[in-house]
Amino acid sequence: MILDSHGRKINYLRLAVTDKCNLRCTYCMPAQGLDWLAKPELMSTQEMLRLCALLVKMGIDKIRITGGEPFVRKDLLPFLWDLSRLSGLSEITLTTNGLLTAPYAADLKKMGIRSVNLSLDTLDRQRFQMITRRDALNDVLNSLDAFMSQDIQVKINTVVMEGKNTQDIIPLVELSEHLPVSVRFIEEMPFNGGTHDVSLNWNFSRILEHIKAYFPALQKKRDPQHSTALNYKIQGHKGDIGIIAAYTRSFCGSCNRLRVTPSGLLSTCLYEAGSLNLKELMRAGATDALLEAQLHAAILKKPLDGWEAAAGSLNYQSEHQSMATIGG
């Protein structure tokens, strides 16, 4: 069991396998992309597997694979198969933009992946192209169909942006009527590569009020332990609705997560500039015992919430320039 200094059990790892992405979403990065990490700067699959095996031994039982876009990494599938064989790991999930995943849905099902987070900010082709700078909406919808055909649970992640996709909130809610999906609306965060200032006009409260105006019978559900979303149900709908207060950070107090960036940097909070480079430790010959000691020491410094983390990270603004660099 891994405990932080606030007595919270840490059992969830978000592992970013690459910073590269095949979209250029306006809320994540500039049009030209980022200065991508060179291959030697990324953790190898062997390093990632060693780290995951150690963390599972320490008490991590859920791992989410993120990016960038995970499927841009060509050796992802063999790594996922190896990961699925780790004894003690009870759940593997992944977050994807869906451009490349449709052909692999059956493989994901076979390796035991039961849940996928799918990024989808609009159902309108023109707005999709405006937001992502790519004409690829059909690819995402094909992946959604593929996941549904394999009975893989899908959580649709929608970043709500003033002046860009607020007109898509209700059409996305309506997806939950006939599909057993969870549609989750996320406050925009400041990790956009410096492309613009974040507007909080569409915060959690306003998103909720907007949905209630169309669906007055919206009912609050009981939130699972450690849930980042406040969850709701519309009577008669197969799916449900979630709202994530990612910028206002109202869910931090029960956080059970660790993050590891594509370069091996450990972060105990999304809003923290991490300082422990696990990749460099491994390449310097660190034993598992030393890695475990370093991990425990870092986790004991895990901040209470995102506000404390940001206040204590002097490099917060410069280090966290894009979600792609810290794991979406």
Q: Report the sheet-strand fraction.
A: 15-25%
Which percent bin holds the helix content? 25-40%
Structural class by secondary-structure content: alpha/beta
CATH class category label: Alpha Beta
Q: Can you tell me the CATH topology?
A: TIM Barrel
Number of structurally distinct domains: 1
- Largest sheet at a glance? 12 strands, mixed
Q: What is the N-to-C succession of helices and strands?
A: EHEHEHEHHEHEHEEEEEEHHHHH
- Tell me the CATH superfamily: Aldolase class I
- What general outline do the C-alpha atoms trace? globular
- End-to-end Cα distance, whole Å, is 26 Å
CATH architecture descriptor: Alpha-Beta Barrel
The overall average pLDDT, rounded, is 90
GO molecular function, one term: GTP binding
Domain Radical SAM core: 5-217
EC number: 4.1.99.22
Keywords: 4Fe-4S, GTP-binding, Iron, Iron-sulfur, Lyase, Metal-binding, Molybdenum cofactor biosynthesis, Nucleotide-binding, S-adenosyl-L-methionine
Write structural notes for this entry.
This protein is of the alpha/beta class and 328 residues long. It has a single domain, classed as TIM Barrel. 32% of the residues lie in helices and 17% in strands. It has 12 helices and 12 strands. It has a 12-stranded mixed beta sheet with strand order 7-8-9-6-5-4-3-2-1-10-11-12. α2 links the parallel β2 and β3. α1 packs parallel to α2. The protein is globular and about 55 Å long. About 2% of the residues have low confidence. Keywords: 4Fe-4S, GTP-binding, Iron, Iron-sulfur, Lyase, Metal-binding, Molybdenum cofactor biosynthesis, Nucleotide-binding, S-adenosyl-L-methionine. Pfam families: Mob_synth_C (PF06463), Radical_SAM (PF04055). One of its GO terms (molecular function) is 4 iron, 4 sulfur cluster binding. Its EC number is 4.1.99.22. It catalyses: GTP + AH2 + S-adenosyl-L-methionine = (8S)-3',8-cyclo-7,8-dihydroguanosine 5'-triphosphate + 5'-deoxyadenosine + L-methionine + A + H(+).
